[in-house]
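Running this now, will post back.
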Amino acid sequence: MIRRVIDLIVIMLLLATTPLLAQTQKVEEQKQRMNKYKQELAKAAAEVEKAKKEKSSASKQVNSIEREMRLREGYISEVEEERRGVEQEMAVASVAIDSLSEVLATNREIYAEAIRTAHRNYAQNNATNYLLASSSIADAARRKAQIEYITTSRKAIADSIAQQSERLDARRMELSARGEELDSLSNVLKDERKRLESSRKEARAAYNKLSQREQKAINEKRKQQKLYDDAVKELQKMLKGNKVGAGFTRNTKGLNLPVDGGTLTEMGFGGTVTGKRGADVKTIYEGIVQDIQYKKLTNRYTVFMGYNEYLVTYTNLGSVSVKKGDVVKKDQKIGTIGNGIESDDAPFVRIAIYDCETQKPLTVSSFFKKK
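Update: finished.
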């Protein structure tokens, strides 16, 4: 009976304290995304202040403020997700604390009864009488082993109680720390929402200073951006289960830039690759052409490529040499680089990489770092 109780205690202890490794990894990835957004947001906010100090044109100020707003919205989304994760962890910790408390209470009752029984046996010389009542030497050895096992079991329960007490205290400390983190995240969200509303007012004021022509251009840009964002979301859904480019993962490194001799400048969670006029734009990996969009206003193309379950967009192409549904090899030409917006701007292609599982963009530069 005591052996069964000991085994049950061990099982309950394991269930109450099993670490959620997958959850831990997910939490760490979430923190990395949140920190990346925070860093990019700080850069964007600095660019807004720089535009104001340099008294840049109202249109440039609107563009910089809107970029900062998009990043701030992304950061708020990440903080909210982190907050939900903390709440879930706190719920798990609370359940673990309840389980450990119940196990601990049960063990203490069992241990108390074992001590009382041991005291009665000692007072009544039951152990000695039990041995003296042996029918043979073998029976005496068996009875002696049983007595020793009961003594060992009492010690095992005592050790288990000590371990459970330590783990219970650790869980309570962990819950308290996560509670403080939850309060901190709530304050961050409150502050970020205030800053976002302030940026919106600022953007509206700057927008009202624009000429009708500039307002029309910005409105068209917003419209095109929304179409682009919607297309990305739809294509990410469609890419589920795609096996073309199956070796492409978030850990992929050392890829060639899409433009030979080009220069990558990371902006937020996308990157701008500048190069020579008319330079070829090549796919960074084996993939499938999911869609091609043409913008009549700018006379530029956007190519949407699927790599495994990742979506990569190439924007501002002057021409394309592939069609929807084509399977292309790594470094195969998909089009040519488009000219800059202003006459003195360098030709460029904008590249962005999205994770279909999280529905969020990834840091572009990490894919081009050497292994």
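The chain has six helices and ten strands. More later if anyone needs it.
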